[in-house]
Amino acid sequence: MSRRVIDWARSGVPVLTGFGDGPPLIPPGHAATVADRHAARIAEATEGRVRLAGARLLSERAAYTGFTRHGMTSAGRHCRLLPTLDGWAAVSCARPDDPILLGALACADVRDDPWPAVADWVRSHTGAELAERAELLGVAAGPVGTVGPVETAQSTAQAATLLPRSVAGLRVVDFSALWAGPLCAHLLSLAGARVIKVETPGRPDGARRGDSEFYRLLHAGHESVVLDPDDDAQRDALAALVASADIVIEASRPRALARWGLDADRFVAAGGTWVSITAHGRESNRIGFGDDIAACAGLVARADDGTPLFVGDAIADPLSGLAAADLAMSRGPDGSGQLWDVDMSSVVATTLDPATQTEPAGDALLTAPRRRPSIDQAPVSGRDTAAVLAELGVAR
């Protein structure tokens, strides 16, 4: 049995891959092996204090939620693989406003269930037409990629040439949400960093609506600050908080942060580390979530007739979170500041190999264990705002 197959089997991902009434499948590519490689570098940076099985982190959320495989519907049920005029596409409906947006994409009056209208529209249009319309509407959708040569992503190529560094005692300001960014922050916290999670009043982390125990796992021990960037005084407080940080994690397009007065280039020029996690790169306006990003990058299993099937549970998220943490725990030869553009699509694409194919998983399968949170409760939203701002000497 190859190293690739063994790593996939250990990851628990095959249990989440395939039709619900069919056998679990070993996906193509080497994502589980790459996840282990990131975890090994994190262990090196922490001198062995943080030792995790990177492959098993890929299916950890499902260990909490009980998600199972559903073939062309994602494990979390928010994304579907649909036939297009020229192939297949992944379409997500994960946010409260997405049914309305998908109705606009399909030129249909959708109130409850957008999928019939969306499936009809997608079937009569090309993947490129879907991607263009989805970008205009802010919908997470695009054509399923094919495995082929890709440029090596910054998050995998450069990490191999960097030197590990300790982040113990560093201050991390985390603007991210859902899974990839919070996993990065969680790993930095385990490595001894102080993590301050920042949310806005109108846009709390959507993961708070998900499994509470999994949310607690990723956020236990972090401080929580809520600030409104539309308020002048609070925007100034936000700038002061960022200026005090050693590492910033965010998952927003640059123009959104610019409206808040936050400048990644200036932060990096001052010697800080800025970790930007986006669906398709900082220069792209496309949005995405873990399932559609992975499928659009080409990470899908294939049924015997070539039908694409989802791999794991939002696998682009934990894979990118591991890559981001690996980079944040690295330094260049000159020790200067660094802007890491963690393009989730490229992170996934660089794990693929045209020579590897979907295959039956067999009997040697493990599901990911449920790690226990370091403390009993996740931070209450905004609980630490006053204390953090007082420490900075700024008013709210």
From TrEMBL:
This is CoA transferase. Gene3D superfamilies: Crotonobetainyl-coa:carnitine coa-transferase, domain 1 (3.40.50.10540). It comes from the Bacteria. GO terms for molecular function: transferase activity. InterPro entries: CoA-transferase_III, CoA-Trfase_fam_III, CoA-Trfase_III_dom_1_sf. Keywords: Transferase.
